[in-house]
Amino acid sequence: MSRSLFFSFGFSSILISLALACGGADPTRSGGEGTLSFTTWGEEYIEQGIPADPEGGFADGWTVRYEQFLVSFQSIEVSDQSGEIAAVMPGSKLFDNTVAGVKAIIDFAGVPARAWDRVSYEIAPVTAATELTPSATQADLELMLAGGYSLFVSGTASKAQTAKRFAWGFALGTRYDECSSAAGGRQQAGIVLTNNTTLEVELTTHGDHLFYDRLQASPDPSVPTSLRFDALAAADQDEDGEITLAELNATPLDVRLYDPSGLGAVNYGAFVSQLARTVGHFRGEGECTVRGL
Ligand SMILES: [Ca+2]
Known about the structure:
By secondary structure, this protein is α+β, with helices and mostly antiparallel strands. The chain is 18% helix and 38% strand. The chain has one domain (32-292). Strands 2, 3, 4, 6, 7, 8, 9, 10, 11, 14 and 15 form an 11-stranded mixed beta sheet that branches. Strands 12-5-1-13 form a 4-stranded mixed beta sheet, with no helix packed on it. The radius of gyration is 23 Å and the shape is globular.
């Protein structure tokens, strides 16, 4: 053995010893097992409504109250960057997140207790095999099936004496990859499961995103993303009190107010459909990489 190889080997041995010595104190390698409990929640915006500014809501004075926020989850997967898979959700489940409370999606028991830095899921069109959960009805599932929807929202927007209804279905499949969230003051990729615990992992849906005036946050932090409804209300071209997706598709985007962020949305229908891909979040404000299926 040459001198340099010896030193190399010796150094590796020290590293291995240190790793073993730390093993007991490191929650990412604690041994044992735990349970991952995946849930979904629509927060106050979807359960109770979205206010007008200055209460952190619409910049142009509207308020929105949802009546339905139907969303179908599938393909939850927990793994690590080496490709080891801890858990995969079979099938799909339909929820109405206007129904109050955090709702169980699926529990995975007996998961090795350690860091799993890759968590992904999909919001995708329902199928005949999609399972109903207590928050949604058979009629909801039939509506989703008829349209091939992954997401369906209905509700009313109000401002002064004006009220506008909307009922929009989105036949989009979206994958949310590499989800991360803030933990202990830093961004944590995926989750860390400790021995003999149940970790709740919330797939949060954000109801305000459908009314954003940008498709992506500005790289300039001084440029805010605002909630707006004036232009959507004006798209009710037959003035029957309901804004349809067809009317949104027929109304060109006012680029003085709306920024398609280079993603090519030329009308409000295309704009809102792109925003529909951004409703899926992770553990509250956490984000995932979004791509179309
Ligand atoms: Ca109309």
